Every structure is written in structure tokens, then in C-alpha cells.
């Protein structure tokens, strides 16, 4: 006899109603929780009201409940996994490098405005006639990564129109849109070992419906943990959850 403490690599893949893969497996980086809960079944009892057996169950119908699955990770490096944890989807984002010259913007003194690009440099701001060039960090502040600019309250830029020139670098990444997909239907595959014995462990959930579980605190002091929770679904000829303890 031995205890069980598992280290497991977890992968997910979208599946159809028959449990057939409809996409590639995506590795869940550093999963911190993979729990399988078998809820207490519903019990419907016929109770005796007779004098000598009052309160005794005469019949009982036991109705099982779906097996519950919860999967969490503290690594949000994969955009699709993060999107799943927000009940959403991800799409590719790209920005081509650009040089913008004397683009007109309406500004308010002391208020931020955003130019059309991110990751900007070589910012030059002039009046609309182009006869006055304002001074960075005196007349205006720049957040180059996000493309925000703010005319300072003590600077020479007045509320009204200015012209902005800058260079923008090329960017690629992903855009996540939250709340667009209520659930995902996936196969969960886990391969690992029992640290108490060193022997392999295999977990397979052929088909599960999972949804986002819990809030994502984007400005908290702890690492963000994304969580999915739902139920294992039945496929004809398969168990809802399969766990193998291997001898070698």
C-alpha cells in the first residue's frame, strides 16, 4: 500500500459529440489542480409509516450525478488557455511597422489621448501650423508601449489641435475576447507518475464540458490562476473517466 501524490502533464483537445478530436492537443503549462469529484447521488426513498417499522426505508432509488471536473493552471502563456478561462476565444493580432507624419489630433490639456499604433518612438508634436515643436517630458508625456500621450498641465500645449509624428514597430500576438463562448467540449489527457512510488499514472476524460470558474485578478499581487470547471460527458462504449496505474 502507498499514498498518492501525482505529478502530471495535462493536454486538452476539442472533441465532437462522439469524442472524436476536432483539433490538436494543447498542453496546459504547469497545471496546479486536476480534480475529479463524484457527487453524492440523489436518493428517493419510500419511508414506512407503519407502527412497527415507522421511519424505515422500504424502497430506495439512487440516481447518480455527473462526475465533476476542475482544472487549474498558474501559467497563462498560452492565449487559447487564457481565453478558455474567460469563456472566450483568441485570434491573431498584428501591427505592421509604420512611420506617421504630422497626424492631426484633438487634445485636452492634462488629459491622455492614444495614437493609432502601439510601441511608438521618435515622437514629435507640433502646433497645427508646424511652427512650434513641443518638448517631450516638459510639454507632454509619452507611454511608448501603449501609444498614449498626455499634454502636461504646466506645458505649452493648449487644448485644441496638434500634429503628431512618430515611428511604430511591428507587433504580433493574440487578442482575447471574453464572454463569447459559454463552454468548451474537450478531451483531457493526463500523463504522469505517483511520486510516492515512482510508477506511471494515466488519466483520460474522453469528453468533458468545461466553463470558466472564478475571477481573474489582473492587478493582484499573486500569480493569476485560471480555472475551468464542468462535467464529464458520456460517450457510448467509454467510461466518463479512466485512470490507469501502470506497473512500469
Description:
The protein has 248 residues and is mostly beta strands. The protein has 2 domains: 6-39 and 65-90 and 176-245, Pnp Oxidase, Chain A, CATH 2.30.110; 97-169. Helices cover 2% and strands 50% of the residues. It is built from 1 helix and 18 strands. The protein has one helix spanning 79-84, and strands spanning 6-14, 26-28, 31-37, 42-47, 57-63, 68-73, 89-95, 98-107, 113-114, 120-127, 140-143, 148-151, 160-168, 171-177, 184-194, 200-212, 226-232, 242-245. The strands form 5 sheets. Strands 1, 2, 3, 6, 15, 16, 17 and 18 form an 8-stranded antiparallel β-sheet that branches. A 3-stranded antiparallel β-sheet has the order 8-13-10, with no helix packed on it.
Could you give a short description of this structure?
By secondary structure, this protein is mainly beta.
Query: Number of helical segments?
Result: 1
What is the mean pLDDT?
94
Number of strands: 18
Q: Which architecture of the largest domain would the CATH scheme give at its second level? A: Roll
Order of helices and strands: EEEEEEHEEEEEEEEEEEE
Distance between the termini: 17 Å
Low-confidence stretches: none
Shape: elongated
Helical proportion?
A: under 10%
CATH class of the largest domain: Mainly Beta
Instruction: Please state the CA-atom Rg, rounded to the nearest Å.
Output: 29 Å
Domain tally: 2
| Major beta sheet summary | 8 strands, antiparallel
Beta-strand percentage range: over 45%
Structural class: mainly beta
Amino acid at each position: 500500500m502507498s499514498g498518492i501524490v501525482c505529478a502530471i502533464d495535462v493536454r486538452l483537445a476539442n472533441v465532437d459529440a462522439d469524442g472524436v478530436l476536432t483539433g490538436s492537443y494543447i498542453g496546459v503549462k504547469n497545471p496546479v489542480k486536476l480534480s475529479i469529484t463524484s457527487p453524492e447521488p440523489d436518493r428517493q426513498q419510500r419511508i414506512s409509516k407503519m407502527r412497527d417499522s415507522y421511519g424505515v426505508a422500504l424502497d430506495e432509488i439512487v440516481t447518480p450525478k455527473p462526475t465533476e471536473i476542475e482544472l487549474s493552471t498558474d501559467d497563462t502563456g498560452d492565449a487559447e488557455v487564457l481565453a478558455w478561462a474567460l469563456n472566450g476565444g483568441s485570434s491573431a493580432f498584428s501591427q505592421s511597422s509604420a512611420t506617421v507624419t504630422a497626424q492631426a489630433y484633438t487634445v485636452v490639456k492634462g488629459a491622455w489621448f492614444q495614437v493609432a499604433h502601439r510601441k511608438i518612438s521618435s515622437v514629435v508634436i507640433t502646433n497645427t501650423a508646424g511652427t512650434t515643436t513641443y518638448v517631450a517630458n516638459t510639454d507632454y508625456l509619452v507611454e511608448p508601449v501603449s501609444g498614449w500621450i498626455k499634454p502636461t498641465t504646466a506645458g505649452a500645449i493648449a487644448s485644441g489641435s496638434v500634429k503628431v509624428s512618430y515611428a511604430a514597430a511591428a507587433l504580433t500576438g493574440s487578442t482575447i475576447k471574453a464572454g463569447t463562448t459559454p463552454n468548451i467540449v474537450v478531451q483531457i489527457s493526463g500523463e504522469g507518475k505517483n511520486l510516492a512510488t515512482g510508477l506511471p499514472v494515466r488519466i483520460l476524460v474522453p469528453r468533458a464540458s468545461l466553463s470558466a470558474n472564478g475571477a481573474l485578478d489582473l492587478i493582484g499581487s499573486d500569480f493569476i490562476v485560471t480555472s475551468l470547471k464542468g462535467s464529464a460527458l458520456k460517450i457510448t462504449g467509454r467510461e466518463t473517466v479512466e485512470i490507469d496505474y501502470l506497473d512500469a
